[in-house]
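Deliverable D4.2, example record:
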Amino acid sequence: MSIKSAASVILVRGPDEEPEVYLVRRAPELKFFGGYWVFPGGNVSPVDHHGEDDPEELVLKRCAVREILEETDILSATLGGEFSRERKQALKEQIKEAPEQWRDFLAQFDAGFPLVTSLFRITTPPFFPVRFDTRFMYVRCPEDETPGIDNYELVEGRFVRPQDVVDAWDRGEMEIAPPVLFLLRLMATGSLDAFLERGRHETERLAQGGLHPVYFSPGIFVAPLATPTLPPATTTNTMIAGTDRLYVIDPATPDQGEQQRLFNRMDEMIGEGRAFEAILLTHHHVDHVGAVIEVSRRYRLPVRAHEETYRRIDSGYITGDPLTDGDRLELGTAPDGSGDWHLKVLHTPGHAVDHLCYIDSRYHAAIVGDMLSTVSTIIIDPPEGHMHTYLDSLNRLLGIPMNVLYPAHGPPRRDGHGLIRHFLRHRQKREDAVKAALTGTPRTVDELLPEIYADVSESVYPIAARSLLAGLIKLEEDGFCKQQDAAWLLQ
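Output generated by the structure prediction step:
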């Protein structure tokens, strides 16, 4: 997977002891962090390259200058001097229509861009379908220059105190991109100088393999760890729910190096005075349980799961009380200080007979295992996989209050119900295609595959064949078709 270069601008005003930072909110319909608050910035563009031998640092600074001009109309803060609104508008047009003129204009400032300070580098974790190597830049906004949103990708922007943003996040009132939240938390702990020092230390730790502080909702930490699983996924999300009372959910990776990264994070949490209560499992599939024994033994934690799960995974762990539909797992006090915070257990069979989901009571985060994925569809593999049951479980989730949905594979999705509806429409489209294909002569699964799954690579046909079979069994149960020898035909 390729990684794109990007620049993100931490635009600051006010005293160093109590700075304000400018945040923008991305349009909800955007695929990457749609609806989230972020720092201004974007991808490196061809217009940022002035020659083959350009230093990377210079290209990234040009990107920062261009992006903050395009998105917020800020230019004096990055280049010095005074630029009228008309001049800035003309320069923005040059970026699009006459890039050579923009390059000529910018060339006079290429002596390092001293008003743009390069700070930290963060690379997107591997569960995103698109990854970025982002350089965070520091720019101080002069008092006479006021940013304003002027970009179709953005819907709002404002200066904020970092601590106010963190507090709003803890109350569930703002959706903030994980790397931005990470840096804002560091900014909220002291002066600007202290932030710069801590930021360098923490981002260097990430570059050396530390787990990124990925939070899409308060109290749910996500660690995408390399795991042998079905393509296109390459990772399984291990999650830690809670702040003081913690549960580790689906410790999945069998890789010792990846396990050590998880151990390091858990040790840090314990060192902060937090306590792990148990291991929770969504289901028994091998790409969800690879580190269960190691985590259970190392931290003396009981494993809690559906009773059927215990029969299907290797022994060697500490067995806890089985979980059933409707059980509550207490989390204590929520990040915003409210009480009665807990996870509710839902039994959601269909993909697996023992499949469980966990719903956070305060922020309505839904940890859904293999009910859905944000990188592919979900395989329903008979006889254990049962399409009717799976669709019933999806429809049940539609009736549960839900904000962020946490799948086992791929990044979380802020509109959980929207993703569920998308999956239901997708399954209905496949079913309609099967019905249409069966109106002629009897067809075998192998004969149906190229027609029903014309939109996928032949390399995934063996997997697709199992879900196709599950769909045919559902239609047989509905009285639409029947199996005769190896072929399927209308009833």
